[in-house]
Design a protein that fits this description.
Number of strands: 26
Distance between the termini: 75 Å
Helix content: 25-40%
Number of helices: 15
Strand order of the largest sheet: 4-3-2-1-5-7-9
Radius of gyration: 22 Å
């Protein structure tokens, strides 16, 4: 039977396609714009027909009707990482949270420690050989497909057909629906003077020829904007966004100096503009891979001069980073921060940067603290931390004593808080 015949046999409406979901199922959805809006809208509309269905995902970007505290007995969200869409449910207790390093989600699925009964995903149009590209987010989705009873695709001509380990054959697909809506576009975060100051400190420490992992947020993007004059940068990251594309257009990224996968930039999900998605289409310089490849500390660490840039919300005198909760109140998730801190630490010539403004709430709260707020989820441990950067400078912590760490962190705290931080350090016998 031809692949075109198979395609037509499996083609149906979104409402019919979600008929593969059964009571008690866990539905796995890719990261961010990899989520299929027509299918999730259909699932939301029919949610009261289901019982005990769970939708598991990192970083949802649209607020579907199933994000509803009144219908969690029908369809409930389980977050691998909270976004602005799912955060309220996590904080109020009607959305579940699954804690894991991003790199380990495929293994948890493979070992059946995480369930995956149905996969719903965006996909590119099928090629002549029967393959679709899950270019926007192969992340943990490829592992979920290997375990799932049913795979349903939303085929959209705006989804790029990217290279890498992100392809699925029509024979693996249970059902598919078609849509032509434009992909969601996410602009660059706002960059202010504090972000610019932090970005300059980090950019000054990144040499020509470095390979970059850049997280999402105002500070990482502030770093990117100050790298346009660099030469022969490479990319091995989890997220590819418009900032990276800007460096490609400026000629700063060539991937020529990469010793691991030279000439290729590697990522596991894309989040940005239409221009970015078009940039991914059959681009031989870009490969999209599952997250257990991109974020594996051993593999990513094979890149010499890997420079990883990630943000935190609070850091204590020992260097423990609380990047995903406000005390015990959940805010985001671990994501790939630990993965890439460890990758950069392994890398020959690598540097792992944790960046944060020195204060919060209009300079009324210090983000550098003696101890983390009670209940804070530790994202990067004291044993993994290396460079910490605020708008007041850089503290290098790896290999330092507790006393040296404390001194270095106080030196980059906001001046208004240094006195009380020193008093606290003395009471803790650290100074």
């Amino acid at each position: 039977m031809s692949v075109q015949t198979l395609y037509q046999q499996k083609r149906m409406s979104a409402a019919d396609a979600i008929g593969v979901v059964m009571n008690g199922d866990t539905v796995v959805v890719p990261t961010a714009v990899g989520e299929p809006p027509a299918l999730l809208t259909a699932l939301s509309s029919a949610r009261r027909e289901f019982r005990n269905v769970t939708v598991s995902q990192i970083l949802p970007v649209r607020k579907y009707d199933y994000f509803d505290p009144e219908t969690t007995g029908h369809v409930r969200h389980a977050a691998y990482f909270f976004s602005g869409i799912s955060r309220a449910g996590g904080q109020e207790g009607w959305t579940d949270f699954i804690s894991a390093n991003f790199s380990e989600l495929p293994d948890l699925l493979n070992r059946k420690l995480l369930p995956a009964d149905v996969v719903l995903s965006m996909a590119s149009p099928m090629d002549a050989y029967g393959f679709f590209s899950l270019s926007l987010a192969p992340d943990y989705t490829m592992a979920a497909i290997a375990q799932a009873r049913a795979v349903v695709l939303e085929v959209n001509p705006n989804v790029p057909f990217a290279n890498g380990n992100c392809h699925i054959h029509i024979s693996q697909v249970t059902a598919l629906t078609e849509s032509e809506d434009a992909l969601m576009e996410v602009g660059l975060p706002k960059i202010g003077p504090v972000q610019e100051a932090i970005g300059k400190y980090v950019a000054d420490m990144i040499p020509d020829g470095a390979t970059l992992q850049i997280g999402y947020g105002g500070i990482p993007d502030a770093v990117v904007m100050q790298l346009t004059h660099k030469h022969d940068l490479g990319v091995h990251t989890e997220m590819i966004g418009d900032g990276i594309m800007t460096l490609v257009e400026a000629g700063a990224i060539t991937n020529r100096k990469k010793n691991y996968l030279p000439g290729k930039m590697v990522a596991t999900f894309a989040l940005g503009s239409k221009k970015l998605y078009e940039f991914l289409h059959r681009n031989p310089a870009v490969e999209m891979h599952p997250v257990d490849f991109t974020n594996d500390a051993y593999l990513a660490g094979k890149n010499d001069n890997l420079h990883a840039i990630n943000a935190t919300m609070q850091i204590d005198f020992m260097g423990q980073c609380g990047s995903e909760s406000l005390g015990f109140t959940p805010y985001s998730g671990t994501g790939g921060q630990t993965d890439f801190v460890r990758s950069a630490n392994r890398s020959n010539g690598g540097k792992a940067f944790i960046v944060l403004p020195s204060t919060a709430k209009h300079d009324t709260i210090s983000r550098i603290v003696p101890v983390l707020s009670p209940g804070t989820h530790v994202s990067t441990s004291k044993n993994d931390i290396n460079y910490v950067v605020t708008e007041y400078g850089v503290a290098q912590l790896r290999g330092k004593t507790a006393r040296q760490r404390c001194e270095a962190l106080i030196a980059i705290a906001h001046p208004n808080f240094r006195g009380e931080l020193r008093d606290a350090a003395r009471s803790m016998k650290l100074l």
